[in-house]
Amino acid sequence: MVASPLDINARVAEFELAEQGEVPAEIYDSPCPLILRGLASHWPVVAAARDSAEALDRYLRRFYQGATVTVSHGSPEIGGRIFYNADMSGFNFSMERSRLDEVLDLLLASRQESPPPLHYIGSTTVDHCLPGFRAENDLPLKFENALVSLWLGNESRIAAHHDIPDNLACVAAGRRRFTLFPPEQLENLYVGPLDFAPAGQSISLVDFHQPDYARFPRFRDAIAQAQVAELEAGDAIFIPSMWWHHVEGLAPINLLINYWWRPSEAYMGSPADALYHALLSVRDLPPSQREAWHSVFEHYIFSADEDVLAHIPQDRRGVLASADDTRARKLRALLLKQLNR
């Protein structure tokens, strides 16, 4: 395993599986990441990957029916790091639509190059590009509507970011290193723009292989709270919602299958929408007004319990009442009316 360039002592806790292929119920409520060693080791794709790159290639092509995928390409000089260009006006890689079998050809060929150019497919729905694959390689989850995606490429570095859904990520081929930080480390990770990022989600601007502590001094505090997980083919990791994670693909060919789910009801919107609205309407208020709204949000949102509304009759609570599909529709209509003034 390639050594991590960061001095991190804490390792992600490992959960001992009762049975191979069974997702333990305990993970769904875990507030911290957990390694599930060997969870997917029974998958045929893992067996093929352990055999050889050629066996993995043949196995994946069995399911491919011609769908195009979005693939990122980068020069050898970027060292597999998917990031911005020098002045952050764009990115250090290019993207195109391509056939999956053409990408597999590139991955096999790039094994002979040192350093290799980057070839990377991120967040692509498995059922779209490999129909039938999940009939042989899947996990039973509590949430049947989980989004199942694949991530395929050679050596790569994905900057630290967080996701709103909970995440169960399974290494199907190659090796991965996850460096994780709890949500409260946001201020120490020096996160870039919210609305302009390599993969859509805002990312840390720190280069984990060459941290610039003069520019990012608080990153040392983040490292003190970091945890590391190093995974082989067949291993999995549970990443709770909002945990920051930096992901490295360490082998010439790496395949990850991940499951995303949100335990909230479908009618609930994304919390990111509320953040954008707050940027529009709250952040630039005078300090005294902003502090007043801080108290309002604390009262109605972050510390809300039944006592907050106990003095209001149930049938008169309006938008303050517990959400359901009907009330969610009314709230969206109200927001649209206000935003379209």
Could you characterize what this model shows?
The mean pLDDT is 95. Helix content is 25%, strand content 23%. The chain has 341 residues and is α+β, with helices and mostly antiparallel strands. The protein has an eight-stranded antiparallel beta sheet. It has nine helices and 13 strands.
What would a concise description of this structure say?
With 341 residues, the protein is an alpha+beta fold.
Features of the shown structure:
25% helix, alpha+beta, 5-stranded mixed beta sheet, 341 residues
Terminal Cα span: 57 Å
The percent range for strand residues is 15-25%
* Rg value: 22 Å
Task: Quickly give the structural class.
Answer: alpha+beta
Low-confidence stretches: none
Number of strands: 13
Return the average pLDDT rounded to an integer: 95
Helical fraction: 10-25%
Number of H- or I-type helical stretches: 9
The shape is globular
- Provide the spatial order of strands within the biggest beta sheet: 1-11-8-13-6-5-2-4
Order of helices and strands: EHHEEEHEHEEEEHEEEEHHHH
Query: What can be said about the biggest beta sheet?
Result: 8 strands, antiparallel
